[in-house]
Amino acid sequence: MSFLDSLNEPQREAVVNTDGPLMIIAGAGSGKTRVLTYRIAYLINQGVDPFNILALTFTNKAAREMQERIEYIVGNEARNLWMGTFHSIFARILRFEANKIGFDSNFTIYDTDDSKSLLRAIIKEKKLDDKIYKVNGVLARISSAKNNLISWQAYKSNPELILEDDASRRPKIADIYQTYVMRCFKANAMDFDDLLFNTNVLFRDHLDVLNKYQHKFKYVMIDEFQDTNISQYAITRKLSNLYQNIAVVGDDAQSIYAFRGANIQNILNFEKDYPDLKTIRLEQNYRSTQNIVNAANSVIRYNENQLKKKVWTNNDHGEKLELIKAVSDGEEGRLVASSIFQEKMNHGLSNSAFCVLYRTNSQSRALEEALRSMNIKYKIIGGLSFYQRKEIKDLLAYLRFSVNPSDEEAFKRIINYPKRGIGNTSVEKILVTADEHNISVWDVVSNSQRFFGNNRLSTALEGFTIMIKSFMLAINNKDAFKAATQVAKNSGILKELYDDKTVEGRVRYENLQELLNSVKAFVDDPENEDKGLENFLQEVALYSTSDTDTDEDSVTMMTIHMSKGLEFSHVYIVGMEEDLFPSQMMLSSRADLEEERRLFYVAITRAKTRLYLSYALQRYRFGQLKPCEPSRFLEEIHFDYINTVNTISNNRPSSGFKLNKKTPTSSLKTKSNFSTNFKGKQQHKASENFTPSSPNDLKEGLRVEHLKFGFGKITSIDTHGSDKRAKVAFDNFGEKTLILSFAKLMIHE
């Protein structure tokens, strides 16, 4: 078979060893998809009926691509394969066998919105507080139980689970779970988790059905095995018990989905389940340069819980990894954008050659703004553009309406969020009244008794009016950050998201904090003379309405979790700081930390040619500019494989970070294209003895030095308000207003 000639020896061995249990440990970029594809094609060419082959993947895209490749080799017979995602294959089985577990074969599959809608109704019927029993959290709890094969009966009789619910002030979760399952059953419906859970129930309670499918599937193959959960592995293990021809392909070093229920122990303990297991390691990387491969190896070796392997490559050594150090998250965005621009110009690269990876979606804001400012097209994968996210649009709508109460679209977005008892019918009545009298919605809302009398609606609108008027007052008397913070708090949006303890709720809360960080950076920027909220909203409007064409020639931006399976010529991993990456949420146990390290390994191995890592010395967190420490993961990269790009003046305060404490001075280099500041002015080179003076020592008339603007004279000091500010007339940059707690001025006698 000619297609085998293109394989290296371990790949070929994995393809032709078809009988018995097999584990293929496939390092990053080692050609695992090709091996799985060729293995199925080889089986068919050896006379195995495609109807007897079960191949399970995690995405429909992966299944389609593999099926197309197999069809190219063996022809139309490939269409008879049982190949697809776990959910699609098990739904297919359940369609045939539904009556065995009490369902009709035409059962409905509920999506997440359907499940949430049903749970909301149940919570309301049970007269439970929906602020405590938040639908996302309840659904996540039920989903976790199902993926761990815990029925509602088992849940109710499990004292540990009941205690956990009591501790979270949600003792009725078990009752909700029971009612939810019964209502789904009554509606002849299954949610996504049921497709796995009910398949396990089917095989457990109906051995004749299990026996039928065990005889049918003589060969079982699982892609991305490290991402399977307990339920998925239980089904496939049962199915393969008769012939024992189960082949799993995966890489424990790329197991990064524990938060979705993935159980790394499935791959780590596979040998215990199959004592006669044959293990083949695919260790040659065809994707990345030697420096990138070696850097990834030097990081992952710190994990104790792993299957040992040594990934290598015959590719060129390539350039060393570049470390970019920035003063702030805003500067980090500008430096990354500048680096992309430089690489494009120097090497004639397209935008699509570049990918920017971050740990959390909220980090995209500064990067998006920097790319827009340089007219570099980008696209967000797996998430909305920062300013298009619901929680961001919600808060911006409050700010817009408080600035301009004639903004009807903003009004419709905020009038009943968070809920204040003004439903769609009432909103429609307000809009119709405004239209009939040819006045603004604000004129109607702020005179509610005149239009609607003294009733429940007018009472609710009066409370809304008082709130908006207080926001208007704040906007007129405070800078943008203080006003926006007041709106975020007093509108109830911040509390609404803070109280949502699910992963989704936490992300949305972080995104709102990142928006407030953006406002704070706007206020602190000495270039912005007008610190008012109106000016900020104008800038945001220009950002969010600018061209965000998502054609193919765009820089790709995404979280690292979304990047698995992808590859790019040039990759930037940003935000390499303690408590950000590794995440503060993942430092409570060694298992969590090792998952974060695997996530970093995945990020490194997306790069083919060049890899850049960046961190900031300070970053806005919750409206405050906080000092940052470089990530511990940076120290785990052997110094042989990494350079630094010294993007800050050598005389600025150092982070104290040293690569493996052995980084040679010669590895530090300055890139001249980063040394120029905005508007084409040459950035000031700080004095050798530069040390910021105490803000308390700064007086009117003193001559001072600033890291960016150089020398100047303090013309006035403003001590009103919580932030002490100074106006400084700089020799080369004109007069600037600086907040002294951030400005870092040095007195020159």
Describe the protein:
The strands form four sheets. Strands 9, 10, 11, 12, 13, 14, 15, 16 and 17 form a nine-stranded mixed sheet that branches. The chain has a six-stranded parallel sheet with strand order 3-2-6-7-1-8, sandwiched between helices. A five-stranded antiparallel sheet has the order 21-20-19-18-22. With 749 residues, the protein is an alpha/beta fold. The protein has 31 helices and 22 strands. Helix 5 crosses helix 6 (135-147), helix 16 packs across helix 17 (364-373) and helix 18 crosses helix 23.
> How many H/I helices?
31
Give Rg in angstroms: 30 Å
Q: Which stretches are low in confidence, meaning pLDDT under 50 for 5 or more residues running? A: 544-550, 646-681
Q: How far apart, in Å, are the first and last alpha carbons?
A: 84 Å
What portion of residues is helical?
40-55%
Q: What proportion of the residues form beta strands (DSSP E)?
A: 15-25%
Total number of strands: 22
Mean pLDDT: 85
Largest sheet: 9 strands, mixed
- Counting helices, strands and paired strands, the structural category is alpha/beta
Shape: globular
